Amino acid sequence: MNIEYILPLMTFWHTITTQIVKYKSPEIANNAVSFIHCVLFIGHYNYEYNLNYTVHASIAFFIYDLFYIIQRIRYFDPSKRMSECNKQLPFIAHHIAGIYILYSSITVNDGENILGAYILLEKSNIMIYISYYLHKDYTDYIRLNALSEVIQLIIYTYFRIFELSFFIHKHQDYLFSYPLITQILILIVYSMGYAWSYRLLKKNIHNYYTLKGNKSNIQ
Description:
84% of the residues lie in helices and 0% in strands. It is mostly helical. The chain is globular and about 55 Å long.
């Protein structure tokens, strides 16, 4: 890994964030930057354009976003800080795992197979960012938000459970030849997909009964 890439790339993500913050809240700006990172990685991967540099850009993004999360926790009132820390813990673990997995993709033999799995993770996240934006900026549009979460569930579950399971099965000889820590982290991220899919399913069931019980009051 080229360390000299990381700091300039972190500055790049910070610059984009500070520009968006001029027009949107820090939360929406952070979500927008996450969406930009996701789309840029998918584009570079599909066109096989300078993937080594793209991996460094993603590592820099995760490091930058970790700083954002930690800074966000620090600004909470001390009485609420532990609660927020527990809330952000899965994202912190996800980012640390992501950094190491991406690092492995450029340092281990046959690391390109890791990127083949990682691109599925990024594709599964696209609707998460869109749905978050709709919830924040179009809160009153309950049907629209509910629809976005249905689409989010379908896309996320398809890539995280079906596509990723198929990919791991197809490339298991390569994946199980990687260092143990890489295998464990891949398994953790894979398991997170099931946990988050279940959470999205529960949310959609809740939305269904909410819509069903408030038909006359919903846009």
